[in-house]
Design brief:
Four copies of one chain form a homotetramer. Chain A is of the alpha+beta class and about 280 residues long. Chain A has helices spanning about 35-45, 115-120, 135-155, 180-185, 195-210, 235-245, 265-270; strands spanning about 5, 10-15, 20-25, 65, 70, 75, 80-85, 155-165, 215-225, 255, 275, 280. Chain A is about 25% helix and about 20% strand. Chains in contact: A-B, A-D, B-C, C-D.
Chain lengths: ~280, ~280, ~280, ~280
């Protein structure tokens, strides 16, 4: 199923080369003044082709609201937002136009889900990655950008940045991690807000020249998150976050808090210290 | 939430006067050849303005597939189909254009959900019934027309017809109820396949002249339904059907099998008789 | 699945002759003082064998709380309450004790789900109705009795009574329908709070002598229900109620408001009239 | 909510010191011969107090089946299995017996969820960890042991072992990782099937003497997992696994496949190689 969440349930739809990709949000709070420019801005941050270190497709992803709003105000009903696919060039993907799939001569792209889709569904989109295309994340970004505006009203901020690429681990960022903002992050082509950004950029360009790429880590800092969030057993906040993060294509790991570093910590050091009235309780 | 179902989960979206209404089906069987003309045909059967006994809006509801298909074949991914709203005339509904709702002078339409929406959401669509508009059912009809094609492969047929309007209860239909088909039903303007159809038509027209309308009953015959369908306790087949039927605006009752007639039956008469090898077991 | 509901989700379990039947409620409000005697009282109202007009099993269904409470207070965690089965007499049901089901000589009880279970699951409980037993409703009654106490805090009352048995339709009840209470209803053996109760009782006893029984109608009056309850499209309040009611074994119909009577009403008469400040708006 | 899964949905219930902890599985396959001794065996593997390196509680956790089985065969109905709590000594936890919570003098245990529960629910179990107690995992182990028997029929095996404790990372196991079995793992007190197990044991005992403990890593090898498992977008297999794993108390990270090691891999090396007919496709 292509849905995630409960009260703010998102359902994404669309393949890489069908008419549209998008999302139904069922439902945002009603009577909420939504800033669509801010949604568009986040979508543009997602867009490949912004710099020479990402994939070269320069897609103009303009959001179109189909339902759930009137005069810029949410109605509390399912909010549907789409982006039309424009860069439809099936021949890019070297699939035949015929209906019959040529199983015999088909060479699936390695490390892509093409073959798995074919096994599971008995068919896959003739061109592109279908649902496994990075364009599927457009629906997520739209929903995230809307969630962001709602969280902002509650003073909650979510800031992500690249914290490692290959073996390049910056030992200093432009500012303390907890003071990073999206504006600071966006000043860096690599989204790694460190003077090592140039180093990372060179590494990526070098690999790109050889048709290659490399892994990385993204760190996310959430501030003013209310206490008691999440359900006590299976839907713990960290479990839901892990679920969401591992659902992003090509993600291989998730850590929260001290993460795997805690393996080498003894309990007495690892303990969280309770604070009383915002001050450490000693 | 605007979703119904499990394996073939439908999510409808759209208000009466937003850009589009539609449905995401998550997901139809993959690799299924879908006849979109048949979907369009069912949608046209739903359309008001086909005869002088329904509401006069003559809307051309053309379906547009946004995702989930390629070359007429389903991909097993979320199938999104929309219809664009065209008849957008807010002034028809006598709402002000201002953002601020004039609570003081607002006179809600009786027996509509306008006021309830306003209470619940603090806002309602400026024009028309919003989600409570009959246009919401467009998404249902699209999904139903697709389900219909899938069921057809399993030899299951679903036929509905008008069985009563006001106090007019036909005592004879064109054919035995179990032999009725949609084609037969559609020969009658009122969808009541009986010579009493004319009587019904006159009654409706008479009421319509006075700006009025009247209630009715719809009967549905499902054939070749597999045994064991439904879950044993809460999601019994009849419970799910009742849920679905009562979710249609302005529905007030649901009966299955002998329905309320069984109140006056003694157990020994009401019993279903088991058949052995298709023959009655006596 | 054996679950129903969202925030107060109930999962019932247990067959007629396994060790226990019961319910997990996930989850009642936390820190709620629960009166278990009141729960027991409702369960005793459900119990067969209270009078000579119901089935003769005199089961003492004592509730046992397994989890979710401490010192009479709910913890906001899953509340599990069971009743142990005592009246385990497989021979009552004429099933062999062997593991192998004797399909050839098996004569399923008519109008019971025995055969359907066998088809669907390839097995059914050797004795009794398994999940289709009326004992499954024990879990529902426990959950209902707890919901009742929560609703009571919000001044919401739910009162049900027998409004028809066979062709006996009382034309007068002890008091106006809206003034009926459970205490009044319980004064009548038949739960039909009318002087016709005696007539109904005689009819049932007469049928019972011949090993027979008859249908009936139950009416339910909910008071102080908050406006805006339910979801706008599929999970409308009336749709959820219909779902719940049709999930009770042997239920064949559901009506809300004017029900099927509205078929013969013209719109102008059927309209609800809006009230202003509790007074009719004329 | 305390549920996880779809077709084999488990709902756990029970606090550390209420009468019982357990699980409802809705529903295992019907007509399945379940070996309860094997379930008991897995539960005994979970049990603390088996050796001097775990917590000293020696609980005898005997499973009791409440519903869903007859003569050792599942009925396809909700399977409820409980374990009664025996070691109920509230005074161990230093909570007062009074109903009123003494917020002023309450010192919550650090790194436990006690305080969070109190904030979220306005109450927490007077004694022990309530739902956050390790005893909650009893329901999971029961469900897992049953799933295990079902998977075994499909030749799927799941083997977990300790792969690191503190800074002790065995560089060799008793056998190749893919050849490890539960029987081999169980030969080692630490469940680390390596000659380093003694080293680990000494480290834990040393820390234990000082009332301390340390972190570790668990590795899990699943064999013969069918291809195409999981849903294409949000409920990817790895996302569901991450969700499940992070829902275990005190888990801080999850990796799948090459995990975080892939950060330093270039794409061309990281690629999975397709095999043809079980042989590498070169």
């Amino acid at each position: 199923m292509s849905s995630f969440g409960n009260y703010f349930k998102i359902t994404t739809f669309g393949e890489s080369h069908c008419p549209s990709v998008g999302v139904v949000i069922d439902a945002p709070p009603s009577n909420f003044k939504l800033d669509l420019d801010k949604v568009q801005k986040q979508l543009s941050r997602r867009r490949p082709g912004q710099s020479d270190i990402t994939t070269p497709r320069n897609e103009l992803d303009q959001i179109i609201v189909l339902s759930g709003m009137e005069n810029g105000i949410t109605l509390g009903t399912p909010l549907t937002i789409i982006v039309n696919n424009k860069n439809i060039k099936p021949e890019d993907y070297n699939f035949s136009e015929e209906n019959e799939f040529d199983f015999k001569n088909y060479i699936p792209r390695p490390s892509h889900s093409d073959l798995t889709y074919l096994w599971k569904y008995g068919i896959h989109a003739k061109s592109g990655g279908g649902r496994s295309s990075a364009r599927e994340t457009i629906g997520r970004v739209i929903a995230g950008a809307i969630a962001d505006q709602i969280l902002e009203k509650h003073n909650i901020s979510v800031t992500s940045f690249v914290s490692q690429v290959g073996d390049i681990i910056p030992n200093e960022f432009e500012t303390l991690e907890e003071n990073l903002t999206r504006d600071i992050v966006d000043k860096y082509k690599t989204r790694c807000p460190s003077k090592d950004s140039d180093l990372i950029e060179r590494k990526i360009l070098e690999l790109k020249e050889n048709g290659n790429s490399i892994g990385g880590k993204v760190k996310c800092i959430i501030k003013n998150c209310p206490r008691g969030l999440g359900e006590p057993v299976f839907d713990k906040m960290e479990a839901m976050l892990a679920h969401a993060m591992l659902s992003i294509p090509a993600t291989k790991g998730f850590e929260i808090g001290s993460g795997f570093d805690c393996v080498n910590q003894i309990r007495s050091n690892h303990n969280d210290v309770w604070l009383k009235d915002g001050k450490q309780n000693k």
